[in-house]
Design the sequence.
C-alpha cells in the first residue's frame, strides 16, 4: 500500500498531476451548476483547489509553479490570438465611444481600489487581487502575481485569496448594474429593438452586390480594365456582364468592353456604391438569384484558401482571372464579406467566392487548396514562436523616472501583446496564424484550468483563516464596491449622455469586465446579438488594460 500513500501524499510528478486533474475535473463539473440562472463556470476550479488545499492536499512547489506559469501563458496567448484580428478595427466608427466608456470603467475601478487601499489599510497586493476578482479578470490576477514575484522574488498568497473572495459577488454585481440601469432609465425592450434596427450599421468595407445598366456615354467602349484605372481609388469588382445585343451573360475580364444598355453585376462597398452608380449609369432592381438563373453555364462556389504559400500574397499576384477565365468577387474573412480587389492580402482560412465554368473553378480550387483537413491541422510553429517572442518581450526591463524597480510586461503581458500583433500582422511575414475556433478554445480552457487549479491549491491553506480572522468578510464588501461603483457611474453616463442602446450597453458592461457569464445573461435578456457586438468591440482593449493596470498598481504602489 506504499504506492497509494506516495500517490496521495507524496511529492512526485504522478501525485502532482493527479491532484491537478482531479481539481480541474471536479471544478468544471461543479461550475455547471446555476444559481438564479448564473453560473461561475470554469472559475469553480479555483474554489475546488482552495478546498483541497485547505484540507492539506499539497503539490510539489516547483511542479505547481511551472504549471501555473505555463497555464497562464497558454491562456493569455490564446486570448490574444482570438481578439487580435479585431483589436485595431475596434477603434473605428462607433467603437471609439464604446472603448472610451470601457476605459472609463477600468480606470475608475483602479482609482476606487487605490482609494480603498488608503482608507482601509489593506496592502496593495491584496487589493489588486480583490480588484481582479471584483471585475472577474483572471489574467489580471496572473499579471499581478507575476509582477509581485518579479519585484520581490517571492509570492503573496493574499493576491489569490483576495481574488477568490471577491469573484462570486463580482459576477452578481455586474448583472445588478445592468438591472439598475434598466429600471432607472425605464428601458423598453421593444423601443430598444426598434431603435437598434433603425440605426443598424454595416461595415463600410463589407461587400455589397449591385446591378447596373450602362448609360453614361463616357463609359461606352471602355474596357473593364480601363474602368478600374479610372476609378482606382474605389473598391469594386465587375463580376458579370449581360450583353444587350445577344442577351447572353459572360464573365467579366480586364479586356471586356462595355456597351450601351449592357447590364453589369458589381461587387463594391456601401461607401463606393453611389460613385459607381453615378459614373456608370443607373442601378436596377435585379437580385443575385436572377443572375444565377441567367448564367446556367457558370457555377458559383466558395473555395477555402488552405495552401500555406498563399498566406500574405496579394490577390492580384495570382492572376487567376487571366489564367483561368474566372472572377473572384468576394472574400469572406471571419464572417465578413470583403471586396476582392487585386491589392487585398490573402490569409489562410479565407473563403473565396469564385464564378466561372465548372472546369475553370476546379482548376482554381487546385491552386487555392480547399482542403478542410489541412485547415484542421494546428499551426504549431506560429504558436510556439509567438510564445517565445512573448516571453522575451515580457522579460525586457522598462525603466520609468521615479520608479526604482524596472517594469516588465511579464509572462502575462508579453505573450498577450505578441499574440495580438502576430494574429493581426503575422501574414505579412508568411506566418500562418489561422486556428480553428475549437482549437483556440481548447488551448484557452486548458491554460486557464491549469492556472486556476494551481492558484487554488497554493492559496487553500490560508483561505478560511483569512475569511474568519483576517478581515476576509470586509474584502468581499470592498470587492463589491469596486465592481458596482464604476459600472453604475459609466453606465448612467453612457445611457444619459451618449444615448447608447441598452442592449449594446449590456455588452459594454460585460466586455469591460471581460465576464462571459454576464454576457450570457445579456444575450438571454436581449434576444439579439447586440450585446455580443458590444462585448466584442471593447473586449480586446479591456483585456489588455486589465492585465496592464494590475501590474502597474503593483509596481507603482506596492
Sequence:
Amino acid at each position: 500500500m506504499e504506492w497509494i500513500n506516495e500517490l496521495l501524499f507524496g511529492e512526485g510528478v504522478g501525485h502532482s498531476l493527479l491532484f491537478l486533474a482531479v481539481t480541474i475535473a471536479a471544478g468544471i463539473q461543479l461550475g455547471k451548476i446555476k444559481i438564479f440562472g448564473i453560473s461561475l463556470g470554469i472559475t469553480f476550479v479555483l474554489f475546488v483547489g482552495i478546498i483541497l488545499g485547505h484540507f492539506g492536499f499539497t503539490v510539489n512547489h516547483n511542479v505547481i509553479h511551472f504549471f501555473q506559469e505555463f497555464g497562464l501563458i497558454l491562456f493569455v496567448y490564446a486570448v490574444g490570438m482570438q481578439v487580435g484580428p479585431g483589436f485595431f478595427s475596434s477603434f473605428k466608427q462607433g467603437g471609439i465611444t464604446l472603448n472610451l466608456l470601457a476605459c472609463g470603467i477600468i480606470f475608475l475601478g483602479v482609482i476606487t481600489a487605490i482609494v480603498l487601499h488608503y482608507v482601509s489599510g489593506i496592502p496593495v497586493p491584496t487589493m489588486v487581487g480583490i480588484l481582479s476578482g471584483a471585475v472577474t479578470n483572471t489574467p489580471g490576477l496572473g499579471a499581478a502575481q507575476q509582477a509581485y514575484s518579479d519585484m520581490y522574488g517571492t509570492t503573496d498568497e493574499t493576491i489569490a485569496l483576495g481574488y477568490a473572495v471577491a469573484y462570486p459577488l463580482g459576477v452578481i454585481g455586474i448583472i445588478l448594474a445592468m438591472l439598475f440601469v434598466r429600471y432607472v432609465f425605464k428601458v423598453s425592450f421593444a423601443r430598444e429593438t426598434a431603435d437598434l434596427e433603425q440605426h443598424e450599421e454595416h461595415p463600410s468595407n463589407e461587400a455589397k452586390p449591385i446591378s447596373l445598366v450602362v448609360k453614361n456615354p463616357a463609359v461606352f467602349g471602355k474596357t473593364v480594365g480601363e474602368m478600374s484605372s479610372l476609378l482606382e481609388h474605389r473598391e469594386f469588382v465587375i463580376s458579370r456582364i449581360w450583353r444587350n445585343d445577344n442577351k447572353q451573360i459572360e464573365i467579366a475580364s480586364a479586356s471586356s468592353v462595355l456597351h450601351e444598355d449592357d447590364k453589369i453585376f458589381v461587387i463594391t462597398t456601401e461607401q463606393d456604391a453611389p460613385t459607381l452608380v453615378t459614373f456608370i449609369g443607373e442601378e436596377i432592381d435585379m437580385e443575385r438569384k436572377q443572375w444565377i438563373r441567367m448564367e446556367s453555364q457558370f457555377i458559383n462556389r466558395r473555395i477555402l484558401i488552405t495552401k500555406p504559400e498563399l498566406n500574405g500574397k496579394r490577390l492580384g499576384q495570382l492572376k487567376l482571372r487571366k489564367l483561368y477565365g474566372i472572377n473572384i468577387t468576394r472574400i469572406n474573412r471571419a464572417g465578413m464579406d470583403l471586396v476582392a480587389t487585386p491589392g487585398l492580402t490573402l490569409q489562410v482560412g479565407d473563403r473565396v467566392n469564385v464564378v466561372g465554368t465548372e472546369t475553370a473553378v476546379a482548376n482554381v480550387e487546385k491552386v487555392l487548396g480547399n482542403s478542410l483537413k489541412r485547415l484542421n491541422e494546428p499551426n504549431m510553429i506560429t504558436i510556439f514562436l509567438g510564445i517565445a517572442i512573448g516571453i522575451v518581450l515580457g522579460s525586457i526591463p522598462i525603466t520609468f523616472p521615479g520608479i526604482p524597480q524596472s517594469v516588465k510586461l511579464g509572462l502575462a503581458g508579453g505573450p498577450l501583446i505578441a499574440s495580438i500583433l502576430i494574429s493581426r500582422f503575422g501574414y505579412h511575414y508568411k506566418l500562418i496564424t489561422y486556428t480553428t475556433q475549437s482549437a483556440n478554445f481548447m488551448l484557452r480552457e486548458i491554460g486557464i484550468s491549469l492556472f486556476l487549479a494551481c492558484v487554488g491549491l497554493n492559496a487553500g491553506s490560508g483561505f478560511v483563516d483569512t475569511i474568519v480572522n483576517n478581515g476576509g468578510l470586509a474584502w468581499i464588501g470592498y470587492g463589491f464596491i469596486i465592481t458596482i461603483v464604476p459600472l453604475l457611474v459609466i453606465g448612467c453616463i453612457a445611457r444619459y449622455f451618449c444615448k447608447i442602446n441598452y442592449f449594446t450597453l449590456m455588452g459594454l458592461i460585460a466586455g469591460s469586465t471581460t465576464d462571459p457569464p454576464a454576457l450570457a445573461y445579456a444575450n438571454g435578456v436581449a434576444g439579439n446579438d447586440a450585446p455580443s457586438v458590444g462585448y466584442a468591440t471593447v473586449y480586446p482593449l479591456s483585456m489588455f488594460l486589465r492585465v496592464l493596470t494590475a501590474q502597474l498598481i503593483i509596481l507603482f504602489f506596492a
